[in-house]
Amino acid sequence: MPAKLSVNLNAVAMLRNRRDLPWPSVAHLGRVALQAGAYGLTVHPRPDQRHIRFSDLPVLRALIDDEFPQTEFNIEGYPSEDFLLLCERTEPEQVTLVPDDPTQATSDHGFNFRTQGEMLKPIVARLKAKGMRVSLFADGDGDEDAVKLAKATGADRIELYTGPYGGCFDDPAKGREQMELLGRTADAAKAEGLGVNAGHDLTVANLPALVKRIPYLAEVSIGHGLTADALEFGMAETVRRFRRACGEAL
Ligand SMILES: CC(=O)[C@@H](O)[C@H](O)COP(=O)(O)O
Ligand SMILES: NCC(=O)COP(=O)(O)O
User: Which of 64, 104, 185, 216 could cross-link with 140 by S-S, CB 3.0 to 4.6 Å?
Assistant: First the structure.
């Protein structure tokens, strides 16, 4: 089974927010992505709303419900009370919890399950009780004990933080090392019965090797590199290119 592509709309929202105007439209580009066969949409609303605004969420929820009911909405964020309430109001199919500080420019590490595992347990249970699948952002450093602690939170999946892998675009040997660490983390998660997602700095160039190493990868969420390609190739063609890179025969 190829990894499913969820298109992260944060970068589109960031372009829109340069002006007090409604374009580029997050909802319209989400529609184009889903029409082109993306499996889902991802957003990462940050507390300062510098990318996705809280008001985007009901619009995207309605887009999926009304026009693409076979697809999924994935909301990412730090599990503050405000974020949890936002998820409970929006009811995404999946919530990806990340340990981001509000001042961070972008996500750059996974949870420390040794120190944060107990904090996560009731939060995971609360979201799952409302029918949302829960994925936890995790470092892909090959730490098998950390994966066991992630499993103990009750989460359904982990999302491998692939930033260090994506950062090796100009150093293939280091890229292979990072990929092996991601692969070992993923294998440990699979052995624990956790599903495995991945995201951050994935591109059409670095995806094929990753999905080959982790053939059971459930889902990738991609925004920055995909939006960069969409400027060149258009959103629909870009989604098809990424689907091919995920292993879909198109
Ligand atoms: C959780 C994660 O991996 C991030 O990639 C995030 O979703 C992207 O967020 P920004 O687009 O706000 O940098
Ligand atoms: N979870 C990762 C994500 O949604 C997108 O990350 P990026 O492709 O914008 O780096």
Answer: 185
Please answer whether residues 134 and 158 qualify as being in contact, where contact means their C-beta atoms are separated by less than 8 angstroms.
no
pLDDT tens for 50-98 read 999 999 999 999 999 999 999 999 999 999 999 999 999 999 999 999 9
Domains defined along the chain, listed by start: 4-245 (3.20.20.70)
Global ipTM: 0.95
What gap in Å lies between CA 189 and CA 112, rounded to an integer? 15
| 239 DSSP assignment | H
Identified catalytic residue from 28, 67, 72, 76: 76
Q: Which ligand neighbours the alpha carbon of 51 most closely?
A: 1
DSSP code for 2:
P
44: CA distance to ligand 2 center in Å? 9
